[in-house]
TrEMBL record:
Domain of life: Eukaryota
InterPro entries: ABM_dom, Dimeric_a/b-barrel
Organism of provenance: Chloropicon laureae
Protein name: ABM domain-containing protein
Domain ABM stretches: 29-119
Amino acid sequence: RGLSRHPGSRPSRGGVPLGAVRKGGEKNVVCTKTVLAKAEHAAKVKELCAKYEEDMKANQAGILAFECTEDNFDENAVHFWERYKNSAYFNQGMQSKETTAFLKEVAEYVEKPVGIALFEYANGQIGNACVEIGPKGEGGLDDATGANKYGGGARYEQTSNTVQL
């Protein structure tokens, strides 16, 4: 028997793959979003979030998971769990008309801007948060000067009494 090759398949001989096939080695991007509604607009925000979830699932390529859930403890909070095939698909999703319309529309009904965090996801495990490098990212100007609102960088202080020198 010769090599069998179907479009999109790997070469095989008699159904046995020729060469190694790496499984689970692809790194995905996970994005979490937290939306905190003003109490009087919680129902409207939940409605907008549900529509956004539906629109993204229907219209975006490269989305492996896109879930919207209400917070178990804060009735005004909604969380998104999004997993994209790679960073290019994540960027495409963030720049999509669905995302830009959602962020614009929900803005007047929320307590503060939508919180967004990115993570690397590989082999079924979530990695560390992705932090941008630069003037406002990890190790940036705000860390060095303590200019961020959390008083980071040069202004961090030790708070444990047992190790306070």
